[in-house]
Amino acid sequence: MRSLWLSAVLALALSAPSAKAEEIIVSSVHRPDYPSVQAMTMMGRLLSANTGGRLRVAVLPKRGTSDRFDIQEVRNGTVAMAAVSVAQFNDTVPETIALSLPFLFESEAHARATFDGPVGQEVLAALDRAGLVGLCYYDIGDRSMFTMRRPIRSVEDMKGLRVRALHSEMWQAALEAMGARPMPLPYESTGAALKSGLIDAAEDNWAAYISSREHEAAKVYSLTRHTRAPEVLVVSKELWQHLSAQDRKTVRAAAKESAVWLRRQLDERDASADRAATAAGVEIIADVDRKSFADAMTPLYATYAADPVVKELVDRIRSYSPTPKEAREVR
User: Fold this and answer.
1) 54 and 152: one domain?
2) Which has the least CB within 10 A, 32, 104, 116, 123?
3) Could you read off the pLDDT of 261-296 as tens digits, one per residue?
4) Which CATH number do you get for residue 26?
């Protein structure tokens, strides 16, 4: 059964210029105030403006229960696009591992230069094998650990902790390398799992930590900054091919512009989240020994960066040399 969106796209592609506006349905697991959701809304405004209202975007926040659900919804045509973690493709598109490995990026500038440069574009192109077209990256910041009471200052503090884990084989292996016990759970179950003692810790970026209100219970946020795997905005390859060449160009341009807009918003939002967490009595642990964590990742790299394609991408990422202006630590 073909989706309503595909029918709309076909009608758009074949109809006269005076045809009524068509909506592109975009899904996200996040709340309406989450950075990437707001970026998709911005993309919609740009598309509407650039097509005289002919192409519009309808963003459906909190629609599915997981990124994997949204990916399947895009594949089967139920929705047109979704913004999902690039780590969700680690098991099917090896190139995405290069952007997901922990403790790989040295700074915000390093990460963003990678996303924008040849490595990032090659990873986007590799999504074609998953039947998807990657439009852009949404940089949503570093992910760090949060707990109810226990500060995490070195990898030793992770030993024995039960940590809510992404449904990613590599990330679960990373937690095991830290000495922790990965507990795969839906993100919306995190708060209850922490309060009940089912898990001891979880991890996410500043925006999600505040937006999901986890900071109201988990009062210790340790800046491990262990990964900066971005979200990727994907569209079904089959549906993409039904758009005209000009419309594809317009959609891609709007997506990229929304990604740039998001970065400006993220910088402001991180500062706001920091203030909100402090006001709520959160203990922010900044003196984290990231080298102890990075050293623990050696066996993980030996396994997950062993593929020649992944290794070559990782080597290119590591060879990045920032300018003096760029050479600063991640916020």
Assistant:
1) no
2) 32
3) 999 888 787 777 778 888 889 999 999 999 999 999
4) 3.40.190.170
Please give the C-alpha separations between residue 325 and each of 39, 112, 146, 225, 314, in angstroms, as whole numbers.
27, 14, 31, 21, 23
The alpha helices in 212-325, defined as continuous H runs, are: 237-240, 245-279, 290-296, 298-304, 308-318
CA geometry: angle 234, 46, 137, nearest 5 deg: 30
What are the CA-CA distances from residue 154 to residues 247, 259, 290, 294 (Å)? Answer: 50, 33, 7, 10
Three-state DSSP state, 135: strand
152 and 238 part of one domain = no
Distance from the Cα of residue 261 to its chain's centroid: 16
Shared domain for 128 and 254, answered yes or no, is: yes
Distance CA 312, CA 1 (A): 41
Q: Which pLDDT score, from 0 to 100, does residue 172 have?
A: 92
Locate 34 and state its tokens: 């989450």
Q: Which of 142-146, 186-190, 211-215, 318-322 has the highest mean pLDDT?
A: 142-146
pTM, two decimals, is 0.85
Cβ contacts of 212 within 8 Å, gap of 6 or more: 31, 187, 188, 190, 191, 204
Domain that holds residue 194: 143-228+273-305
Q: Which two tokens stand for residue 42?
A: 């911005």
Flag whether pLDDT at 237 surpasses 80: yes
User: Beta partners for 132?
Assistant: 236
| One domain, residues 208 and 78 | no
What are the CA-CA distances from residue 6 to residues 25, 71, 206, 225, 240 (Å)?
10, 16, 36, 40, 10
Question: Per-residue b/e over 35-47, b at no fewer than 16 CB within 10 Å?
Answer: bbbbbbbbbbebb
Q: Kindly report the CA angle at 234 between 233 and 237, in degrees rounded to 5?
A: 155
Helix, strand or coil for residue 141? coil
Phi, psi of 283 (to 5 degrees): -90, 115
Across residues 125-140, what is the average pLDDT? 95
Residue 299 has pLDDT above 50, yes or no: yes
